[in-house]
Amino acid sequence: MWLQLHDGDGFPFFVNMDNVVDFRWYEREKYTCLLTTAPVAEKLHRLYVRESAAEIMKLIGEQQVRTARVTAAAVATA
After folding, report:
1. Is 18 helix (H, G, I), strand (E, B) or coil?
2. Average model confidence (pLDDT) for the chain?
3. Structural domain of 62
4. Distance between CA atoms of 41 and 59, rounded to whole angstroms?
5. What pLDDT, on a 0 to 100 scale, did the predictor assign at position 77?
6. How many structural domains are present in the chain?
7. Lower CB density within 10 Å: C or N end of the chain?
8. Burial class (CB in 10 A: 0-12, 13-18, 19+), 52
9. Dihedral sign, Cα of residue 42, residue 48, residue 49, residue 52
10. Dihedral of CA 56/57/58/64: which sign?
11. pTM of the model
């Protein structure tokens, strides 16, 4: 599942959440760090986004609902 998130400057980019293994909100710094399975120098790749972990969880839930509706509609018309 792809989500549109925003970098530190507010520019949007898309993240394949299927590759994210962990994400955490850092209150003092006001960013969320996402760890992905894409290796960089044999380490997990880190992405920093403006959205909080709670906002990301909400976006994931909304996308899951949309996907379920599309799947249900496709099954109903088949």
Report:
1. helix
2. 92
3. 2-77
4. 30
5. 85
6. 1
7. C
8. middle
9. positive
10. positive
11. 0.84
